[in-house]
Amino acid sequence: MTTNEMLAKIRELKELKTMSAELDKEITALEDEIKQEMNATNKTEMFIDVFVIRYTPVTTNRFDTNKFKTEHNELYKTYLKQTTSKRFSIN
């Protein structure tokens, strides 16, 4: 690939990422409006045309790694697993 081809791909990628970020903002704004309406009407489920919209509480249990590390540091170190990956970035 030539330098000019690489430059064109980088510029296209940056433009697409910008567009993606703008779309993500629009998506979040629309979701927030729907959630606000559901909260205002005190509904957790709505049927609109062919769509079922749910906005319900979900409870999860997560392992508190920081607390475990603080209270059982040696045991924590025993179970650490080192991994290697590559990071791609364009600045």
Structure description:
This protein is mainly α and about 90 residues long. It has one domain. The chain is built from 3 helices and 2 strands, in the order H-E-E-H-H. It has helices at about 5-40, 65-70, 75-80; strands at about 45-50, 50-55. Strand 1 and strand 2 form a beta hairpin. It is flat, with a radius of gyration of 23 Å. The mean pLDDT is about 95.
SSE order and pairing:
Blueprint: H1 3-40, E1 45-48, E2 51-54, H2 65-71, H3 73-78
Antiparallel strand pairs: 1-2
As laid out across the biggest beta sheet, the strand order is 1-2
The secondary structure category is mainly alpha
Shape: flat
What is the helical fraction, as a range of percent? Answer: 55-70%
Q: Overall mean pLDDT score? A: 97
**Would you count the extended β strands for me?**
2
Distance between the termini: 20 Å
Which blocks of ≥5 consecutive residues have pLDDT under 50? none
Number of helices: 3
Can you write the helix and strand succession as a string? HEEHH
Provide the domain count: 1
Estimated radius of gyration: 23 Å
What portion of residues belong to β-strands? 5-15%
Largest sheet: 2 strands, antiparallel
Question: Can you give me a brief rundown of this structure?
Answer:
This protein has one domain.
